[in-house]
Amino acid sequence: MKPYEHGGNVYDYEGEIIDFSSNINPLGVPEWIFDIIKKVDLTKYPDIKYRKLKEAISQYVGYSQENIIVGNGATELIHLFVRAFKVKRPLIPSPAFLEYERAVHINGGEPIYFRLEEDYGFKVNLAKLLLQMEEADSLIIGNPNNPTGQAIIREEIGILLKKAEILNIPVMIDEAFIEFMKDYKNYEALPLAKEHDKLFIVRAVTKFFGMPGLRLGYGIGSPSLIQKLEEYKEPWTVNALADAVGREIFKDEAYIEKTREYVNKEIEYMLYTLREIDYLVAFDTKVNFILLKLRTGRVNDLKQILLKKGILIRDASNFRYLDKSFFRVAIKRHEDNEKLIQALKEIDIKDLVEDKERVVI
């Protein structure tokens, strides 16, 4: 199996790096988190049922604890869904988060891919997706989708779920980035979990709350679905530090609103300024990252030039259906975003042409 690369791998590079490859809350973690961590008793196992953590999540999402499962980041829960439902032929709108297909391949399956068309702004064509669902044994959707930044409104998700019920197939919706959206309530699938027994909604605490190193995710579904997942889940995958922080993080409403306001203001700034750069195409986005395309040349050359300036971007060419001209950048603090914009403006287009002599760095 080929290696699956992700953003955030700053460890391959030396020196100070501004990491635009990882889509994390630019405001960082709330300061009070460190006081919580200092008080954690590491001599005890976490509660194997994570009752207090689930209670905190319950109050945040409006579902009871029997509807909730927690995991070591959203990634564990993605793999758990595939394993528990013995998913072999999921339909995956793509380009998409690479762990969807990796989880399927690890479990001996082969995904079916629904191509998100560049000419359509990488948005989902609902009619075509509904038709292709008939070939699959499940449906896996990123909403909002990584790396395209596009999302499906809840009404359309409801239509997909009705089709899934007719076909009797499970559906996983990855909402790891949904809380960054200004109008997220029009897109989140949470209200639909009450009506659909085979719907599993995955979320990542560590993206929105800026602490990917802590590894914490959770999922919502019907009691029967959650029970099935628990039967396949390893114990204690959420450590005591993540457990303790997770009990408090959802209460910080000021941080949540500040993040959403800050990120959406920066999205507008980034899209406007990036579109002033002639050699770039900046696609619309609803979340804290932007998919871009070079009008000429290849991203690897751009990446190497920017690394010399202490900036790391996400080469998106290993996403299905994207080629060597695509890359992704995160929304960071305004001063960092300005540095990226300035660095991109300073690049000589001649350094990106296809036939120039390559320099290996």
From TrEMBL:
Pathway note: Cofactor biosynthesis; adenosylcobalamin biosynthesis
Coiled-coil residue windows: none
Major enzyme class: lyase
A matching Pfam family: Aminotran_1_2
GO biological process: cobalamin biosynthetic process
Lyase is among the record's keywords: yes
Tree of life domain: Bacteria
EC numbers, comma separated: 4.1.1.81
Cofactor: pyridoxal 5'-phosphate
Domain Aminotransferase class I/classII large: 16-344
Alphabetized InterPro entries for the sequence: Aminotransferase_I/II_large, CobD, PyrdxlP-dep_Trfase, PyrdxlP-dep_Trfase_major, PyrdxlP-dep_Trfase_small
Reaction catalysed by this enzyme: O-phospho-L-threonine + H(+) = (R)-1-aminopropan-2-yl phosphate + CO2
Protein name: threonine-phosphate decarboxylase
Lineage: Bacteria, Bacillati, Bacillota, Clostridia, Thermoanaerobacterales
